[in-house]
Design a protein that fits this description.
Radius of gyration: 22 Å
Structural class: alpha+beta
Number of strands: 17
CATH superfamily of the largest domain: FAD/NAD(P)-binding domain
CATH topology of the largest domain: FAD/NAD(P)-binding domain
Helix content: 25-40%
Shape: globular
Number of domains: 2
Order of helices and strands: EHEEHHEEHEEHEEEEHHEEHEEHEEHH
Length: 419
């Protein structure tokens, strides 16, 4: 293959996966990551593939869930992200959740140990240089302003933006287990679990109504003027926004009580707050679905109204950050090229997909596309992603954001040479 390196800008899930796929295909790679020289609104470390929001890759059920099917397809494609997630999985019912620190540390270590990958720390300010023949931009929703502005100018359209939120994390030792109990919904046994993987905190009707009142009245973070028209992403709404859409919304969302029985009362509670293990030691648990824009003091006060969390100590409080992405149907072609500059490919959340798995899947595709093109230029033949039924024959495909258009469209064909 060519000795000219592929440049991958961004060391998140998509960039890490793209670099790995290229290297395993024999292609030299320079992976650019601006952290720690320049931070973001959400990252806390300099590790590659750091998980900044949830620690869950969602359902791992390949037979009955489209996200689980995507997991299996990526495993068969030799995904670094899925292989590492499997080695760091935590009890989470039917979901694939990971110890976020161990996961990021291993991804970083494996990329550092790969001889075909060189990691350069520093911001790529503005568009990548034209002398970089093959480039993948995988900078995610927290793309630095200089690069985001350059992409916007080149494309001739404004980048779309939305707000994303982060849920709080609680120290397990501060949870009252005279009230809370361990159980997975419907006692489902998952990849690393035993059917009792989540901590459950029950609320009766009066407690639920008081909690909703407090959420609605709580002091919230004020938007800056330029943020005022930015929408939320409906798949990750702040909990107080959900509550404002109707008093029963949370009971049919993150606080739904179905499939859970309080072992003391032997009854189903009016509402249930679930917490999922967040680290390998089992000392930290995140509050599922409780992303929020409440001010810090209000979070502590209101979330301690939940039975079992009255004395909760928080390892991390929730927050809100602004994300940007490219309007991919108009600006990117089927092989992830930016139409205004074909040498640039894009991958990950910046292409408009949402979620850890989807981002890594687009990184996998981008890496394989370039590897296939490089083989073709040198007279070889390289197989791209394996054939899949994603987005075509799977009975649940149309209902899952995991099969976000581009993955489904690109994965249904074999790439035998050509870019």
């Amino acid at each position: 293959m060519t000795d000219n390196p592929v440049h991958v800008v961004g060391g998140g899930l998509a960039g890490s996966e793209a670099a790995w796929q290229l290297a395993r295909a024999g292609q030299p790679v320079i992976l650019h990551e601006m952290r720690p020289l320049r931070g973001t609104e959400a990252h806390k470390t300099d590790q590659l593939a750091e998980l900044v929001c949830s620690n869950s890759f969602r359902s791992d059920d390949a037979m009955n869930n489209a996200v689980g099917l995507l997991h299996e397809e990526m495993r068969r494609c030799g995904s670094l992200i899925l292989a590492t997630a499997d080695r760091h999985k935590l009890p989470a019912g039917g979901a694939l959740a990971v110890d976020r620190e161990g996961f990021a540390e291993e991804v970083t270590a494996r990329l550092l140990a790969e001889p075909r990958i060189a990691i350069e720390r520093g911001e790529v300010a503005g568009l990548p240089p034209t002398e970089w023949a093959d480039t993948i931009v995988a900078t995610g929703p927290l793309t630095a302003p200089a690069l985001a502005g350059a992409i916007r100018k080149l494309s001739g359209e404004d980048a779309l933006a939305f707000f994303d939120a982060i849920a709080p994390i609680v120290h397990r030792e501060s949870i009252d287990f005279d009230i809370a109990w361990f159980q997975s919904r419907y006692d489902k046994v998952g990849p690393a679990g035993d059917g009792a993987d989540y901590i459950n905190c029950p609320l009766d009707r009066a407690q639920y109504e008081a909690f909703i009142d407090a959420l609605l009245a709580g002091d919230k973070t004020e938007f800056k003027e330029w943020e005022a028209t930015t929408p939320y992403f409906d798949g990750c709404l702040p909990i107080e926004i959900m509550a404002a859409r109707g008093r029963e919304t949370l009971r049919f969302g993150p606080m739904k009580p179905v499939g859970l029985i309080d072992p003391r009362s032997r009854r189903r509670a009016h509402a249930v707050v679930q917490l999922r293990q967040d680290n390998a030691l089992g000392s930290l648990f995140n509050i599922v679905g409780f992303q929020t824009k409440l001010k810090y003091g209000e979070q502590t006060r209101i979330f301690r109204m939940i039975p079992g969390l009255e004395k909760a100590e928080f390892a991390r409080l929730g927050g809100l950050h602004r994300n940007t992405f490219i309007n991919s149907p108009r600006l990117l072609d089927a092989r992830l090229h930016l139409k205004a500059r074909p040498a640039l490919r894009f991958a990950g959340q910046i292409t408009g997909v949402e979620g850890y798995v989807e981002s890594a899947a687009i990184g996998l595709l981008a890496g394989r596309f370039i590897a296939a093109a490089a083989h073709a230029r040198t007279g070889g033949r390289a197989q791209g992603p394996i054939d899949t039924q994603a987005g075509a024959g799977h009975p649940r495909a149309g209902r899952s954001r995991a099969l976000a258009g581009r993955y489904a469209a690109c994965c249904l064909v074999r790439i035998n040479g050509g870019g």
